[in-house]
Specification:
The chain is mainly β. The chain is built from one helix and five strands; from the N terminus they run H-E-E-E-E-E. The chain has one domain: N-terminal domain of TfIIb, CATH 2.20.25.
C-alpha cells in the first residue's frame, strides 16, 4: 500500500529538525530527505514524520 505524497506547499515549509536546513521529498522512497543530516524521515498517510528518532540514516551511494 502506497502512502499519498505530502503536498508541495507543506514540503516547502519544512526544515530538518536536526540541522534546521532544507529538505526535499523523495517520491521513490516516499520520505523527506535532509541532505545535511543525511537522514530520511518517513511519510505516513501523506504526513511527514519529522521526529529525529523516527528518521533512518541515508545509505552512501
Amino acid at each position: 500500500m502506497t502512502s499519498a505524497p505530502p503536498s508541495p506547499a507543506l514540503i516547502a515549509r519544512l526544515v530538518c529538525p536536526v540541522t534546521k536546513g532544507p529538505v526535499h521529498y523523495d517520491a521513490t522512497r516516499n520520505c523527506i530527505i535532509s541532505p545535511q543530516a543525511q537522514l530520511a524521515f518517513p511519510v505516513r498517510d501523506g504526513i511527514p514524520v519529522m521526529l529525529p528518532e523516527q528518521a533512518t540514516p541515508l545509505e552512501a551511494d
